[in-house]
Amino acid sequence: MRARWAPLVxxxxxxxxxxxxxxxxxxxxxxxxxVRAAEVRDDPLAGYRAHSRTPEDRMANFAAHFxxxxxxxxxxxxxxxxxxxxxxxxxxxxAAIREYGGTExxxxxxxxxxxxxxxxxxxxxVARAPGGPARVFDSAGQGYxxxxxEFRRENTLLAPEDYLRGPRELARLDGEGELxxxxxxxxxxxxxxxxxxxxxxxxxxxxxxxGVAAVLLRRRAARDR
Length: 225
Hints:
Blueprint: H1 2-16, H2 30-36, E1 40-41, H3 55-65, H4 68-76, E2 79-80, H5 91-100, E3 104-113, E4 119-128, E5 135-137, E6 143-144, H6 148-154, E7 163-167, E8 179-183, H7 190-224
Parallel strand pairs: 1-4
Antiparallel strand pairs: 2-3, 3-4, 3-7, 4-5, 5-6, 7-8
Helix pairs in contact: 1-7
Protein name: Lipoprotein
Keywords: Membrane, Transmembrane, Transmembrane helix
Organism: Crossiella cryophila
């Protein structure tokens, strides 16, 4: 019996371990969507859209105050936290930074478009420790080595259907480096393959138990004759 189920289990596990499905469609222009949006969560420039009624009004207002490069500098350049409330890490991030031994803390943001098209700025903190490399911490206290690839693989704040724009080197603090637009997560959807596997195993066990029960009933009936 165990040998009969082995190919099915292996096939389902292979499906569960497969790469995530990429979201459909072209890579979005998140900065343009940010400018046009009527509402942006945790927006440091909310005042520039407060009295604009249409996307066109908001685009004109931002264009009057920022060049495209200036706007990206404001959104994505890390800034050092110097006892400013608006720059303070969350309690979980603060605890993780203390455990790491960080003595210098910088705030940086990622521009996010959720799967439901909502736009937001996601705040991360970069911590420097004496004699060690800089590390990146999210609001949940999760730490990362500073590479965007690692963040996308390990974070639990974003989904594969979300998009983000930010620096490829999250821990880089000199204002240089490449800005990229990528999906928010590359985590594999274990729950899809795992749920299917559990359902099929459960169904198989049920059939097997029913078969055993039928055999026992037949044997009992034969003894009673």
